[in-house]
Design brief:
- Helices cover about 75% and strands about 0% of the residues.
- It has about 230 residues and is an all-alpha fold.
- Among the domains are: about 40-125; about 190-228, no CATH class.
- The radius of gyration is 31 Å and the shape is elongated.
């Protein structure tokens, strides 16, 4: 009868080998870090437009509500207001409130679209990984191409590339289209859109704003003189 040998005190139990995980090459990690450093403008533009829209909607609400409250106060203080005049006055105030509601609905829609764009860009940056760096860089290249086409005034081609690549939320087509309207107006000797753009962006133009507006005014006076 054979006896199984018992392990002595000096023997050690065998341990299974631990699987080693292969880390991505440091070169890919470095490329990814460098790519992400260049994405400041990629996030900055939509967030600035988002904040600008929120401020504009807030100003609209303040202005309209102040006007409505002033109208109500004026009507309440008048003792000589007839019933028909009071009804007409109230109808006018109701119409203003309905107009405000439509503006708020449109403003809310724009805010939602801009928030969606910000979220899409954050998700795009968060998806960057050393493992899928090639795919991520391919999408980034398409973004750069769209941006280049827009800057070179190839608007239709840029829009088609963005749509075919499904990157509409990752490019700033609307910003360039807005600029195109101003440029087209200036080419048609109209400075009003450019002046409106200056008013909308006066906080960013800072000191150069005064010189820029002065130039537009001079251009407008010159064109008016020529047409006259």
């Amino acid at each position: 009868m054979e006896m199984n040998s018992l392990p002595n005190g000096n023997s050690t139990p065998s341990t299974p080998p631990v699987p080693t995980t292969t880390s991505p090459p440091s070169s890919k990690v470095g490329q990814l870090a460098e790519s992400l450093r260049l994405e400041h403008q990629f996030l900055r533009v939509p967030f600035e437009h988002y904040k600008k829209t929120i401020r504009a909607n807030h100003r609209v609400v303040e202005k309209e509500m102040s006007s409505v409250m002033s109208g109500v106060s004026d009507a309440a203080d008048r003792d000589d207001l007839s019933s028909d005049e009071a009804v007409n006055h109230l109808n006018s105030l109701v119409s203003r409130l309905q107009g405000l509601k439509r503006k708020l609905e449109e403003g809310s829609r724009v805010e939602h679209l801009q928030a969606q764009r910000c979220r899409a860009r954050l998700d795009h940056l968060e998806s960057a990984d050393a493992e899928n760096l090639s795919e991520w860089n391919n999408m980034r290249l398409k973004r750069i191409l769209v941006d280049y086409m827009l800057r070179m005034s190839y608007y239709d081609t840029a829009v088609k590339l963005a749509e075919s690549s499904n990157i509409q939320d990752l490019v700033d087509i609307d910003v360039f289209q807005e600029a195109k309207k101003v440029i087209d107006a200036l080419q048609n000797k109209e400075v009003a859109p450019a002046l409106a753009w200056c008013a909308d962006n006066k906080s960013r133009l800072k000191k150069s704003r005064v010189k820029l507006i002065f130039k537009f005014v001079v251009i407008g006076v010159t064109f008016a003189t020529i047409l006259y």
